[in-house]
Design brief:
The complex is a heterodimer. Chain A is an alpha+beta fold. Chain A has 4 helices and 3 strands. In chain A, helix 2 crosses helix 3. The longest helix of chain A is centred in the middle third of the chain and has 14 residues. The termini of chain A are far apart. Chain B contains 6 helices and 3 strands; from the N terminus they run E-E-H-H-H-E-H-H-H. Classes of the chains: A alpha+beta, B mainly alpha.
């Protein structure tokens, strides 16, 4: 089918992918407490990997320290997976969970 | 040890003779550690290098298996990359003409990798020896075994090195 003047037909696969992505459930990235990582180091990792500002990085660090864990990001599966790998490469215990339906 | 930013994105680390010996010892341990068979490691250390990517029991099995396989592969690659970095560091030392102080120039990315490697050593010591937060607060004279005393001391010194490198970026709250 020819496009109307001034319009463009998007490939069907793109539309389907975008709809699937928009309605799919997100994934949570969680960082767990451990006995060795320094508080300053954890703040630094949150700023470096999660691009948090000082205030948010400090707040999440305290949550990890006091409550044993903190939900630090909500992302797509792919982005969450990348963040978990990066956080772990810095020695933090990070996991990911799919959000409830 | 000192850490100075010599230009944007470029750092110079400087170690005196004793600190150099300490770092070389740590690198030697790390070199062996990155080559160790994960399957033969104590459970806590094995979990550090493999671990579960999801702590949620409800997450679909197939997806978790895929994620777990990706994580296992990424962790294995990371160990190989860090082993190569350890070898580079040791080669740099062998080639250096000035060793007191020993000076190393790094990009920010290389410095971050070095920090993460020192942190691997801290984590490995703690997990292998079962060192807890309370142990880190204990007077060294009260620690029963020499291995634990040395472990706590090394964790502490490496933490000090890390904080020096993080410098003014660190949390001051």
């Amino acid at each position: 089918m020819a496009d109307l003047p001034g319009t463009q037909t998007l490939p069907q696969i793109d539309v389907e992918e975008k709809l699937k992505s928009a309605f799919s459930r997100g994934w949570s990235v969680i960082v767990w407490n451990d006995p060795v990582n320094l508080m300053d180091y954890v703040v630094y990792v949150f700023k470096t990997v999660l691009k948090m500002n000082e205030k948010d990085a400090s707040r999440h660090m305290w949550e990890v320290h006091q409550k044993g864990k903190s939900l630090v990001a909500r992302e797509t599966r792919e982005k969450s997976e990348l963040l978990v790998h990066r956080l772990r490469s810095f020695g933090l215990n990070a996991t990911m969970e799919q959000e409830p339906a | 040890m000192t850490s100075a930013q010599i230009e944007p994105g470029q750092w110079r680390l400087s170690f005196n003779e004793a600190e150099t010996g300490f770092v070389l010892n740590t690198l030697a341990h790390l070199g062996r550690h990155y080559q160790d068979d994960i399957a033969k490691m104590p459970p806590a250390l094995r979990a550090y290098w493999q671990g579960n990517i999801s702590s949620a029991p409800g997450t679909p099995g197939k997806e978790v298996r895929e994620l777990q396989a990706d994580l296992t592969e990424a962790r294995a690659e990371l160990r190989a990359e860090r082993l190569a970095l350890v070898e580079n560091w040791l080669r740099e030392y062998e080639l250096s003409e000035q060793r007191d102080p020993w000076q190393v120039e790094l990009t920010t990315a290389e410095r971050d990798e070095f920090i993460a490697m020192l942190n691997d050593r801290r984590m490995a010591l703690a997990l292998e020896l079962g060192i807890t937060e309370d142990d880190m607060e204990t007077d060294l004279g009260e620690v029963r075994t020499e291995a634990r005393r040395n472990g706590i001391l090394e964790i502490d010194v490496l933490g000090h090195f890390i904080l020096i490198m993080l410098g003014p970026q660190i949390y001051r709250g």
